[in-house]
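Teaching note: in complex prediction, the entire set of molecules is handled at once rather than each chain in isolation. The prompt given to students was simply: 'Predict the structure of this complex.' The entities are:
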Amino acid sequence: MAKTLLSSILLAALTLAAQAQDETTAPQVNDDLTVTFSLQVSGAAKVEVDGSWGKSKMTPEADSTVWTLTTEALTSDMHTYRFIVDGSYRTDPLNDRTVRDIDDTLSYFFIDGTPGSLLQEQDVEHGTVEQRWYPSSFRSDMEQRRLSVYLPPTYADSTDSLPVLYLLHGTGGDELAWLEMGRLACIMDNMLAEGQCQPMIVVMPNGQADQDAAPGCSPYRENTASHANVSSWLGRTEAAFANEVVAFIDSTYHTLPDKQHRAIAGLSMGGLHTIAISANNPDMFDYVGLFSPQTMNALTDKNIKAIQGVSNTVDGVLSKIPFVNTDNLREQFGQKTQHLSDIDVYKNLERKLIVQAVKEPKLYYIAIGKKDPLKRFVSKFTSKLDDCGATYQYQESEGGHSWNNWRNYLIDFLPQIFTSAE
Amino acid sequence: MAKTLLSSILLAALTLAAQAQDETTAPQVNDDLTVTFSLQVSGAAKVEVDGSWGKSKMTPEADSTVWTLTTEALTSDMHTYRFIVDGSYRTDPLNDRTVRDIDDTLSYFFIDGTPGSLLQEQDVEHGTVEQRWYPSSFRSDMEQRRLSVYLPPTYADSTDSLPVLYLLHGTGGDELAWLEMGRLACIMDNMLAEGQCQPMIVVMPNGQADQDAAPGCSPYRENTASHANVSSWLGRTEAAFANEVVAFIDSTYHTLPDKQHRAIAGLSMGGLHTIAISANNPDMFDYVGLFSPQTMNALTDKNIKAIQGVSNTVDGVLSKIPFVNTDNLREQFGQKTQHLSDIDVYKNLERKLIVQAVKEPKLYYIAIGKKDPLKRFVSKFTSKLDDCGATYQYQESEGGHSWNNWRNYLIDFLPQIFTSAE
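The expected output is the structure of the full assembly:
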C-alpha cells in the first residue's frame, strides 16, 4: 500500500513541491537589479533570452546542459521574456508566471520600485474584475460581444454612482489585453489605495469588429484571426460605441452618465478609435487619452491611399517576413478597400475635432515614445489639433511602441481624470 | 514616407496577418477525427507531441525542418498538448489557444460532438464571470482571498434569487482552474441554453490555505508555491468555508440561502474538502459531488501516518524525480505533521458522515476513473459510507485522474442538482 500511495498522491506532491521550490526564485533578481536566468536544455547549439529590455545570448556551463545569463541592471517595471533555443521560442519552465500578448505566451517578472510595485498586487483592498457580454447589432451573426470591467473595492459596498473610464486596446489585442499585459486591476487597486486617483469603473471592450471575444472565448473560431483584417479595425466598433458599449454600461452599473464623469483612452489602434469616438460624441467625454496612437489614417486620405498602394510593393515587404502565405496576403492587401473618408465616423473628422475643441474637454492627453515609428504621425496630428484650435497635453517618453510605455502613460493619465468632478 | 509606413503599421499588420492565417488551422482536425500536427524547428534530433490522449514521436520531412504527426482518431473533447523538442517542452506556435494547468502552459483544441461542443462557446446567451476578493480571517497576514464566480445570463436582468454550486479545485489548482482547464463558463452557458440544468450561481474559491490567489494575482509571491506544502491542503480552508465563503456569497449575490439551494462539488483534493465541508455542515448542502476525490486521508489515520512514514523512504522516491532540491523536501516530509484526527474538521468524521446521512442530502454523487490510482481508496470510502448508512450515487468511468474525466463528471452532475427546488 505504501507503494501505491507513493506512486499517486505523494509522488504528485513531491513533484509539485520540487517544481514550486524552483519556480519561486526564477528568474533571480539580484540586489544590483541585474537579473539572472538559467535554462536546463540538452543538445542546444544556441540559447538566447529575448526580453522586453533586449535580446542576449546565454552561456553554457561546462557540460552544456545548463545555460545562464545575467543582464545589465534593469529598470523597475514588469518585464516579459522568452528563451530562444536554436531558433525556437519557449517560456521559462522555472517561472510559473506567464502572460498572453496577442498570440504569444511570455514569462514575466517584476522589479520593485516605480512603476514596478504599482504593477503587482499589494496587500491593499482589491477591486472586482468581470467578463460579461453585451448586445451588439452591427454584425448580424455576432449579436453579443464580450468586454471586461474593473469595479473598485468600494463599488460593492455602496450604491454611490461612479465615473467610467473606457480603455481601448491596440491592433491584435482584445478585451483581456489591458488586464493581462496592462496589469489594469493591480494599477487601479494600488493607485486607489494610495489615493493617487479617483474611484472609477474601468471598461475594456473588444475593439475588433470581426472578433466578439478573445481567442478560446468566442463561438466564432474563424474570427479569432480577425486582427489580420484591416476592415476589422476601422469604422464599425467606433460607430457603435456610444449606443452599444456606453449605453450598456450606463444601464448595467451605477454610473454617473454625463460628460464630466466619462473618460476614454486607448493605445495604438485604440488611440485612433479614441480620437474618432470622442470627436463623434463631443458631449460624451471630458477626458481623452491617446497612448502612442495611430493617427495619420484619421486625418488624411493620403495615408490610407499609401496603405492601399502597398499592393504594388507587397512582395518587397513579404520577402522580409518568414513563413508567410503570401497568396492570401497579396489578395487581402491588393484589393481596393474603402477610403477612411467613406467611413461615417471618419467623415469630416477635422470639422468634428474643431467642434470637440470648442466644447473644451477638461483633458486631451497625448503620449508617444521618442523611438515610436508613429511619432512623426503624432506630430502631424498635434499640428492639426493646433490648426483646429484644440488644447491638449503632450508627453514624450523614452522608448517605443511598447506595453512598458502604455502602462506608464496610464499611470500618468489616471491622476488627472475626474479630479474636478463633484 | 511609404517606407516608414511599411516598417511600422503595415509590417505589423502583415506579420499579424501571417501569424493569424496559420493559427486558425493548427492543429488540423481531419474528417476522420485524426489530428495532424506540424512544427517547424531546425537542428532537432527528436520531436514529440505530448497530448492529453498520449505521447507520440513526430516524423521529420526530408530536410528535417518540419516535423509532422497524424494521430489515431480522437474522441470528442477538449484536448491539450505540447511539443517536446529534444526533451524541452513548448507550446504550438501555430495555435493561439493556450491554457494554464497549474504551472504549465498547454496548447489546446476541440473535437466537436459530446462533450467537445459543450466545452466551446456556442452562439447562445453568455453568463458573466467575476474574480473578486472576500474577507478572510484564518491567516492574519492574508486578510483577503480571491474567488471566481459564474453568474448565469438571467442573473443581470432579474432580482430573482438563485441556487449556488460551490465548485472546488484539486491540489496545485486555484480559483481559475475550473474556468481555464474546466471550461466552466462554456459548460454552463451551453447546458443552460439547452435546458439541461437549472440556472445557478457557480462559486470557485481558492482552496489552498497558504495561497490567496492564483500565480501573478497575489501580493504574496512566496505563497504561489504553497501547493507544495501539505499543511496548506488540509483543515484551514474547510474550517473557514461556511463562515467565510458561503456567508460572503449569500451577502453579496441574490442567493437562496438554504440547504435545498446549495450544492458543493470538488475534484481530487477538492473532493476531500467537499467531504469535510459537507459533513461538518450537514444542514448546508443538499447536493454533494466527489469527482475522483482524495478520500483515504479523511477516514483513517493509518494513511496519513503512511505519508508521514515516507520520510524513511524518501530517497527512493526522490531518485525518480529529476532536478529536485532533496534537502528541502526531506525537511518538509521528514517533519512530523499533524494527524488528520487532530484537525478540527476531520475529527470524528465518521460520526459526522452518519449525521449527514440521517439528514438525507438529495444527492451524494461519487465518480472515479477505472485507472485512477485513487480508485482503491474511493472503494474504501464507499464501504465506509455503507457502514454509515449513507445513500450515494456511484459512477465509474474509463480513464484516470484527468480533466477530461472531471469535466465529464460535472456535465453528469449538473442536471441532477436543484431539480426539486421550488
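Point out the following to students. Chain B has 13 helices and 18 strands. The first helix of chain B runs from residue 2 to 23.
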